């Protein structure tokens, strides 16, 4: 017979091994459960367009850029005015970001124009594709030509990703002399103009830098993950409604746009690489400039961002909105945004 003391030692020896085997078995069961769940998710169709999104889509048109379909809206508004304004949206959303200020703009401008950049919203989303700020600027120039506005002075309003596209257009117009767009004015809003004050979200950093994880993460990102991420860049008192969150997510999922997010996010690296080109265009231009800024923005935080902007871009005027407004000022405070913009546009 085994000595009791010896049996205790055997038990002590076998327990960690048994625990390890049990843990392995547990992970196998988890894997067997998760694999079919992931498979099901990857085949979930995109959400249906809401009535509001369907109306926006129905009011738009499509033109072709290098064989790709680009969605845009072009509304004719104020009689007796020849002024044109073009709106450039941010990442990861679409031209629908401008829906809350669209009608008031049509009461002031002869034409109000917005597009979905390539890879966004209702535009085509090719993959694989090397998305770049340079290409998006060419998309805008092509739209201007398509609409017969190449000889027309235009006003630009931009946000986030659209800010950098606007700076490339400004560079082409002012410094390179090859631009096909003539500026009348430029109004920027919360965007990562300066890499040194820009703080991308964790998921953005992983997607732009991890070629191994990115294809997996873009497929697994779902509405709840998106809602948490986008909600974090809105103020606590200016959160989108559930319907608005779903409209944003629907625009991303349209044409499998979630699968190109990692490619589009290379714009963050492009901003760093071409900082001198784009910041240089901003600091040297004589085009009337204005910045509308939501100070609660975690991506371009206050006061670091706005202090640097005012130091470097001394010809620009600035509006800092209420302290609870964050990264999407045109959605969080459309009245404040419009008041600031109209004050700017009437100042020159």
From TrEMBL:
Top-rank taxon: Eukaryota
UniProt keywords, alphabetically: Endoplasmic reticulum, Hydrolase, Membrane, Transmembrane, Transmembrane helix
Please report the organism this UniProt entry assigns to the protein.
Answer: Collichthys lucidus
Of which family is this protein a member? Belongs to the AB hydrolase superfamily.
Q: Which GO terms describe its biological process?
A: acylglycerol catabolic process
Chief place where the protein resides? endoplasmic reticulum
Give the bilayer topology: Multi-pass membrane protein
Residues of the AB hydrolase-1 domain: 84-334
Where, by residue number, does the polypeptide cross the bilayer? 26-44
Q: Which GO terms describe its molecular function?
A: monoacylglycerol lipase activity
Q: What is this protein called?
A: Mesoderm-specific transcript-like protein
| One Pfam assignment | Abhydrolase_1
Q: Name one GO cellular component term.
A: endoplasmic reticulum membrane
Q: Where is this gene product found? A: Endoplasmic reticulum membrane
Q: Does the keyword ATP-binding apply?
A: no
**What range does the record give for the signal peptide?**
none
Keyword Transmembrane listed:
yes
